[in-house]
Amino acid sequence: MRISRLVTFFLAFALLAGACAAPATPTPAPTPTVKPGPVTLTVMTHDSFAASKDVIAAFEQENNVKLSFLKSGDAGAALNRAILSKAAPLADVFYGVDNTFLSRALDADIYEPYASPLLSTIPAEFKLDPSNRALPVDYGDVCINYDKAYFAQKNLPLPQTLEDLAKPEYKGMLVMENPATSSTGLVFLLATIAHFGENGYLDYWKSLYNNGVVVVDGWETAYYTNFSGSSGKGAQPLVVSYNSSPAAEVVYATTPISQPPIGSILGKDTCFRQVEFVGILKGTQHLALAQKFVDFMLGVKFQEDMPLQMFVYPTNTQAKLPDVFTKFAQLPSQPARLDPAVIAKNRDAWIKAWSEVVLK
Fold first, then answer.
1. How do residues 207-221 score in pLDDT, each as one tens digit?
2. Residue 74, domain member (yes or no)
3. 49 & 69 share domain
4. CA angle, corner 178, sides to 81 and 348, nearest 5?
5. Sign of torsion, CA 180 198 346 273?
6. pLDDT value for 188
7. Which of 26, 98, 133, 316 lies 20 to 30 Å from 358 when distance is taken between CA atoms?
């Protein structure tokens, strides 16, 4: 009985103590984790840059990044902008310098070296910068395109060499772009210098001038206004353009066609090979992301997207070409080449000398 009273006393005391105690502090709800917003990575390019939206979106999603493309004119103008702003870079990455401007870009020291692991998939012939500041993304050939119907109707054999273009039977048939205002025209001028040498190219241009070569400011005028093979209304059946132009004619035909109306002349030195590069600009605040973007441009997904976006060839040997390229775009077996350093040293003088002969 006594024990029972003691138990009852202690139970009552415990209940009273619990009632007088401060209420328990509620456990706070866990703070939700907020994922940071995407970082913006700015990529400076020339005006011809293009990529599929889904390919760009895939990179953005995988890396929580927003890509901003800063188009800055043709390759030369874009390079000038990158050089002039190198103290306070306008972008993190710069794509579009080609081998005709490469040495100038390297001399200006605008790039951060980066030995991408994807370089192992690229042939040595495209790796023109041993320091890996400018990494090769794509290549293509500036060639002479011809109007198939014109030559068939005239029963006229195609010119096969640069020398042929100066023959009387082709008088007034070639339209080209001014090397001082067009990268396409500049590259064709370089092809003639590679073929005839510095001591012979001006004599060749005198013969072309006497044979009625037509010079216009840019590629669009040459191809879509003067060239008969594209518009069907132009006066010239020969134009300085690209070896991928026949494939482009098939892709962009308003009515489906099984064969392009134009072809490319692919004789020795009649084409000049252009290689385009990407590099990380010094001063970037997003080095790791910039490196990932360079890897992305050299990777198979982007490389396989390029041919039908910019009508260039991938440098990555693992990338497959679209059928329209394999069927209708032919690569020359012996394209003309010049050392980028030689081009950088002489470019302005060559253009000036050419202008004095052809634009007099």
1. 999 999 999 998 999
2. yes
3. yes
4. 55
5. positive
6. 97
7. 98
Q: 29 falls in which pLDDT band (50, 70, 90)? A: low
User: Helices in the chain by DSSP H: which ranges?
Assistant: 2-20, 53-63, 75-84, 102-107, 148-153, 183-196, 201-210, 219-221, 228-231, 245-251, 287-298, 300-305, 307-310, 323-328, 340-358
Query: Do 219 and 105 share a structural domain?
Result: no
**254 against 116, higher pLDDT:** 116
Please check whether residues 117 and 159 belong to one and the same domain: no
In tens, the pLDDT along 66-115 reads: 999 999 988 888 999 999 999 999 999 999 999 999 999 999 999 999 99
Record the tokens describing residue 29, joined without a space. 């709800």
Higher-scoring residue by pLDDT: 158, 30 = 158
Q: What is the pTM of this model?
A: 0.85
- The answer on pLDDT for 154 being more than 90 is yes
Strands, E assignment, 31-149:
39-45, 65-71, 93-98, 111-112, 135-147
pLDDT at 230: 81
19 within some domain:
no
Range of the domain at 354: 141-272+334-358
Q: Are residues 340 and 242 in the same domain?
A: yes
No. of H helices and E strands in the chain? Answer: 15, 11
What residues contact residue 119 under an 8 Å CB cut-off, 6+ apart?
127, 132, 135, 298
> What tokens appear for 111 in the block?
């790039």
219 CB-near residues (< 8 Å, 6+ apart): 177, 182, 184, 241
Regarding whether 202 and 148 lie in a shared domain, the answer is: yes
Identify whether residues 164 and 265 lie together within a single domain.
Answer: yes
Which amino acid appears at position 133 of this protein? R
Q: Domain holding 353: CATH number?
A: 3.40.190.10
Given a contact cutoff of 8 angstroms between Cβ atoms, the answer to whether 86 and 61 are in contact is no
How much is the pLDDT for 92? 98
- Per DSSP, 109 falls in state T
